[in-house]
Write a structure and sequence with these properties.
Radius of gyration: 27 Å
Largest sheet: 2 strands, antiparallel
Helix content: over 70%
Structural class: mainly alpha
Oligomer: single chain
Order of helices and strands: EEEHHEHHHHHHHHHHHHH
Length: 361
Amino acid sequence: MEEKDNKGDVLVTDGDLYEVSRGHARIIREALTHWKDSGLVSVEQYQRLNGSLKEVFNWKRIIFHFTWIAGCCFLISLAALFCNEFFIKLLKLASPEVKTVSSFFFGMVFTVAGFVFRRKAPSYLKMYAILLLLGCVFIGIGLGYLGKVLDFSWESIRYLLLSGCLIYGLIGWFGKSGMVWLFALVSFSGWLGCESGASFGTYWLGVSEPLRFMVLGSILVILAFWPKTGCFLEKREINGVTLAYGLLTLFTSLWFLSLFGVYSLDEAFRWSEKASEAELFVWAVVMAGVALMTLWEGVRHDRSMLIGFGSAFLGIELYTKYFEHFWDSMDKSLFFFFFGLSLLAVIAVIHRFKMKNAHTE
């Protein structure tokens, strides 16, 4: 099919058509219209470029979302199976050894099926990720029963967590599955908390719990941001998950430090030792500085994840201190009045910043 202008000249053929979704086509056409009105492109160029756009239905996105909905249904079905009375009776009859072997067997079947499906299925069909996820769920169940078979004490759970971290990490790395990689990161965090004494001792190497996880979050963020390691993680399709989990761990740790200081959470909740106001203020400034830096980097590089984390935790820190210092000392009507007024001020600042950027451009 050929598209012609008013003079009968051929503007575009089927081979020149660029298939885009309806939303993207609208944005591109708005840009083309602006360039035509500004004189950056001629009318003929505008007609040729506009005619080269072909709106198509984004059926790949529909398949993607339906695939994950199917995966959620499978997980709900699995959870419902463990709540079935008949299945519960079968589990009671089976020995822990049988439960362990069968769990690992199903985990291996789903994992192998996931890797096979990943090789043969189209890239937009994420069914392999669901199979890998189901495999990891059964592997986790098997590790739990293995601890029961070996009669592990509560303190020995850290070995199971480390084993799960290694298994999930390998599956997530070679399977290019962000969800499974998240399992590995969560398992590693659990192992770090247990190994360093979060449940069995307050300090480890002289460092309290929030500081340990602050270091972990910082390392993950650096790995995701540093170009060499970031590109490497991007090839494995796990860079986004690593960055999100690192930011969440970093900011949550800084938030706890701004509330309780470097003391452990147990000591802080028992009020046996309190951090000084100066120390809490320093940690609050550190958290606000990191949030502002994250927000600035997000604006500079147009990364919505950084903007979201930076603005969210900056607001959490500011309003935590606001509640902490003014909730008891201020009348509640005035408290919420100034609270709402501060939100309007933030909106005004954002609007002014946006308008300033628009005029600059």
